[in-house]
Amino acid sequence: xxxxxLRLKASLExxxxxxxxxxxxxxxxxxxxxxxxxxxxLMRSLGGVPQEERPRVGKELNLVKEACxxxxxxxMREMEVLRQRMEEERNVVDVSIPPCxxxxxRFHPVAQTMEEIIKVFVSLGFSVATGPEIETDFYxxxxxxxxxxxxxxxxQDTFFLEDQRLLRTHxxxxxxxxxxxxxxxxxxxxxxxxxxxxxxxTHSPMFHQVEGLLLDEDVSVADLKGCLQVFVxxxxxxxxxxxxxxxxxxxxxxxxxxxxxxxxxxGQDPSCRVCKGTGWLEILxxxxxxxxxxxxxxxxxxxxxxxxxxxxxxRIAMLKYGLSDLRPLFEADLFYLTGGNGx
Length: 343
Ligand code: PHE
Hints:
Blueprint: H1 2-18, H2 22-33, H3 38-44, H4 54-91, H5 109-123, E1 127-128, E2 134-136, H6 137-140, H7 152-155, E3 165-167, H8 173-182, E4 186-195, E5 206-216, H9 221-236, E6 242-247, E7 252-261, E8 280-289, H10 291-296, E9 305-312, H11 313-321, H12 334-337
Parallel strand pairs: 1-4
Antiparallel strand pairs: 2-3, 4-5, 5-9, 6-7, 7-8, 8-9
The structure holds phenylalanine.
């Protein structure tokens, strides 16, 4: 009987060593040591052994059974160690695998440009002011010295709403709103959306402006030019040539437009699409605030004067990022807006 037990033990050991996985080891445990297992059954037949032999045989059988238990446990532990090692290998982070391109967010190019423009003026001592996009004729035109049937009103291609209201065509109405609420001296920039009935590669019906207004005693055109020159040099990151051309706005006198040298071709390419070979790019309208506008804002024109400007943010974004069409900026195409990294 003890021989039979030893034979079973040997075959268990043989089968254990060829067991492929934990499940196979567990099956062997049932087969040999379970309630109806081969060794268990053998132990049960101990009753058939003559009385005087039983203690010795029983003891030896117990030893064999314990050895079998031990063998199974050892094999299980080996299997577990193996399993853990395989899992670790599977979980290893391979830093050389290229990333799978998870989409991530960015600020819109126009928002970035707006932020940069504001930063430059804040560093020059300007504060930020805002106003409503739905305006009245008074703030958008009348207070800005547009006479009732002035042709300049048509130049603005206005979207009219009900109740005499309209979508502001520029950020200039906030000049007057700010004069009324803050008074002079004043140094503000006014970022915002504006609307005009206009759509082509360089015009969108909704676009962005940053207006500026500086009012103080003894402000001259030289201050205007110096301030805006500092601005273009910092926003484009290098010293740019510029020129001021005479122009007309009802709310400034004198009025001018500022051109900077073409940042795309540096004025070197007669077939440049951005400056159309002129070497110059118009980036803003400006001028010395008209006395009538100061009066609308409750500011004394005898004591205070100053300059104002309005620049197209989208235009500056186009130049900074070398875009030839403005409209895709407003079509919410994430692939375009994130430079191909958004999907
Ligand atoms: N409001 C003008 C425009 O939208 C720009 C401007 C602002 C010009 C302030 C002069 C002074 O075209």
